[in-house]
Amino acid sequence: MTRCSFLILGLLLISVLGLSPASGWSQDEQFPQRIVSLGPINTENVFLLGAGDRLVANTSYCVHPAAARDKVKIGSVMQFNIEQILSLQPDLILATGLTSPQQVAQLAASGVRVVHFRQPSNFVMICDQFLELGRLLGLEVRARTIIAEAQKEVLVIQQLVKDLPEKKVFMQVGAHPLFASVEDSFTNDFIVLAGGINIAAGQRDGRYNYEKVTAQNPDVIIIAIMGSEGGTGAREREEWLRFAPISAVRNRQVFVVDPDLICSPSPMTFVKGLQQIAALIHPQEEK
Q1: Which of 10, 127, 142, 144 keeps 20 to 30 A from 102, CA to CA?
Q2: Per-residue pLDDT at 260 exceeds 90
Q3: Domains of the chain: residue spans and CATH
Q4: What is the pLDDT of residues 143-195, one digit of tens each?
Q5: Strands of 92-96's sheet in order across
Q6: What average pLDDT score do residues 23-51 get?
Q7: Long-range contacts for 80-85 (Cβ within 8 Å, ≥24 apart)?
Q8: What is the pTM for the complete model shown?
């Protein structure tokens, strides 16, 4: 079964089981104190809210902030140890769009409250999910303050680039097969808000090929692939440098960025990622 199929099945199960942010804690209930996060975005958001001490476990992919690395690891984003999770006696489990639907169902059947945050499709959704988490943890005021600051910083970046020439950008988010950032993805907002044109914006399916990129001739190529710490990003950059007809290649505008920053943003790490992407697209504006 493909990852996309898992996501669709997961959403169906979550709907049937009534698992959603709206099914979270009422104002009359005690706020959760023992949280298990099943993905990096949730982990970063819990820490950003100042509730890192309530996080009892997360996944091997949860490495930001640094304190997240010291938490008990219950497996990966898509495959985790249910028995280990339940042994930690959590009162809240934060699932993601990549959480296996079968395991979500098992966790819910055990009686533990599970809240599902699907993969955000844009910066607005990133902020909305962060606010919902703030409400769940009794930290709504702090959440609103952080969101306001992030929105302010995004506007500053937009003002810096608004009068600059737009550049065509290809952002690679997967390899073997080649995957592009498409319009229904928060990674598209990195490009658009930074004053770029996403050459893959009109494609619903992220699967791409080198020939199509060559034909569209982007000015900038940005590589943001999870697992790049193993050298995948550098190898993909070398592969791109073989395609001399592409403007980005001729002008040495092929960049590898930190996937932990770009692929799993909280409101504030989105700002950091946007600053980095804007500097790559419009280097003359880098401070």
Answers
A1: 127
A2: no
A3: 3-119 (3.40.50.1980), 163-282 (3.40.50.1980)
A4: 999 999 999 999 999 999 999 999 999 999 999 899 999 999 999 999 999 99
A5: 72-73, 55-58, 35-37, 92-96, 114-117
A6: 82
A7: 80/38, 82/106, 82/107, 82/110, 84/57, 85/36, 85/57, 85/112
A8: 0.84
In the structure encoding, which two tokens stand for residue 100, read together? 């296996």
The three-state (H, E, C) secondary structure of the chain, written as one string: CCHHHHHHHHHHHHHHHCCCHHHCCCCCCCCCCCEEECCHHHHHHHHHCCCHHHEEEECCCCCCCHHHHHCEECECCCCECHHHHHHCCCCEEEEECCCCHHHHHHHHHCCCCEEEECCCCCHHHHHHHHHHHHHHCCCHHHHHHHHHHHHHHHHHHHHHHCCCCCEEEEEEEECCCCEECCCCCHHHHHHHHCCEEECCCCCCCCECCHHHHHHHCCCEEEECCCCHHHCHHHHHHHHHCCCCCCHHHHCCCEEECCHHHHCCCCHHHHHHHHHHHHHHHCHHHCC
